[in-house]
Write a structure and sequence with these properties.
Elements (H helix, E strand, L loop, with lengths): L11 E9 L3 E8 L5 E8 L6 H13 L8 E7 L2 E7 L4 E2 H5 L6 H20 L2 E2 L8 E3 L5 E3 L6 E2 L19 H4 L7 H16 L9 H10 L13 H10 L10 H4 L15 H13 L1
Antiparallel strand pairs: 1-2, 2-3, 3-5, 4-5, 6-8, 7-10, 8-9
Keywords: ATP-binding, Nucleotide-binding
GO molecular function: ATP binding; protein serine/threonine kinase activity
Enzyme class: transferase
Length: 286
C-alpha cells in the first residue's frame, strides 16, 4: 500500500497554513505526543488531472532517504485529500533568499554541493527529479540544505532508460525537455545551472518574458548565461558552463560536478545561516 493507515488528525493538532501551490496547501502542525512541529502537504485529489504524480511523490520520499532530501514521516488519505507529513524546515525555500540577496561564491558552492549530493544519489537510483529550482530547495535554521518537491519525479531503468514528457517549470526546463526529445538525468543538471543563475542574478534567464516565449528561447537559442557574468570568478563560470551545455551528452553529470574545483570553495552549512536569519527578520516585519 502506498499510504499509511490511520487518520493523522488523531495525532496532529494546531494546523496553521503556511503556503499554497497548484496541488494543494501546506500547513505546519504539532505532534501531540512529542510536541514536534511537522509540515503537512494536503493535496486535493479531486482537482488533479494526473493523480499518479501525487502518489509518485509519496513513493519516492518513502523509498529514497538521503541527508540532503526532505524526510517524509507518514502519508495518509484523509477524505478526498492525500496528506504527506514531513519534516518542517524553518529556514524556508531558497527562493526567498535569492530574490532578495546576492549570494557570495562560498555560499553558492555550499548550496550546489548539497544539491549535487542529493542528485547524485537519486540519479544512481534511476530517479530524475525534473523540477530543480530554488523553490524546491529548503533550508534548516542551521543552514543545512534539503531537496523537496518530488511530484514530477520519474523512474528510469534498463527497460525504460529515457523519458519524454513535457514536465517541470518553464524557465528551468532543459532544451531537450521542451523539444520533447527523449531525456534522462541530465535535465536535472541543466535546471541546477539555471538555479545557479538565480543565485547570481536573483532570477532565472528570460524571467521577464511569458513562459511560452522563454521556453522557445531555451529550446532554440544558445545556452543562456548570467547577466552578472562579469561579477563571477572564472571557476564559477566554468562550473556554470558545464551545466548549461545544450547537448546532454556533453553536459556534466552530478557525479562529475562534485569533483569540480569550484566546489573546493564550499563551506559548512553555517555560512548560510546569515541568509536564513535575514529572511526570517524580513518575515517578522510583515
Amino acid at each position: 500500500m502506498v499510504v499509511d493507515k490511520g487518520d493523522p488528525r488523531m495525532y496532529l493538532e494546531n494546523f496553521v497554513k503556511i503556503g499554497e501551490g497548484s496541488t494543494g496547501v501546506v500547513c505546519i502542525a504539532r505532534e501531540k505526543h512529542s510536541g514536534r512541529q511537522v509540515a503537512v502537504k494536503m493535496m486535493d485529489l479531486r482537482k488533479q488531472q494526473r493523480r499518479e504524480l501525487l502518489f509518485n511523490e509519496v513513493v519516492i520520499m518513502r523509498d529514497y532517504q538521503h541527508k540532503n532530501v526532505v524526510e517524509m514521516y507518514k502519508s495518509a488519505l484523509v477524505e478526498e485529500e492525500l496528506w504527506v507529513i514531513m519534516e518542517y524546515l524553518q529556514g524556508g525555500a531558497l527562493t526567498n533568499i535569492v530574490s532578495e540577496t546576492r549570494l557570495n561564491e562560498e555560499q553558492i558552492a555550499t548550496v550546489c554541493e548539497a544539491v549535487l549530493q542529493a542528485l547524485a544519489y537519486l540519479h544512481s537510483q534511476g530517479v530524475i527529479h525534473r523540477d530543480i529550482k530554488s523553490d524546491s530547495i529548503l533550508l534548516t535554521l542551521d543552514g543545512r540544505i534539503k531537496l523537496s518537491d518530488f511530484g514530477f519525479c520519474a523512474q528510469i531503468s534498463k527497460d525504460i532508460p529515457k523519458r519524454k514528457s513535457l514536465v517541470g517549470t518553464p524557465y528551468w526546463m532543459a532544451p531537450e525537455v521542451i523539444s520533447k526529445t527523449p531525456y534522462s538525468t541530465e535535465v536535472d543538471v541543466w535546471s541546477l545551472g539555471i538555479m545557479v543563475v538565480e543565485m547570481v542574478d536573483g532570477e532565472p534567464p528570460y524571467f521577464s518574458e511569458a513562459p511560452v516565449a522563454a521556453m522557445k528561447r531555451l529550446r532554440d537559442e544558445p545556452a543562456p548565461t548570467a547577466r552578472n557574468t562579469h561579477k563571477i570568478s572564472p571557476m564559477l563560470k566554468d562550473f556554470l558552463d558545464r551545466m548549461l551545455t545544450r547537448d546532454p551528452i556533453e553536459r556534466a553529470s552530478a557525479t562529475d560536478l562534485l569533483e569540480h574545483p569550484f566546489l573546493l570553495q564550499s563551506g559548512s552549512p553555517q555560512c548560510l545561516v546569515p541568509l536564513v536569519e535575514q529572511y526570517r527578520k524580513r518575515m517578522s516585519r510583515c
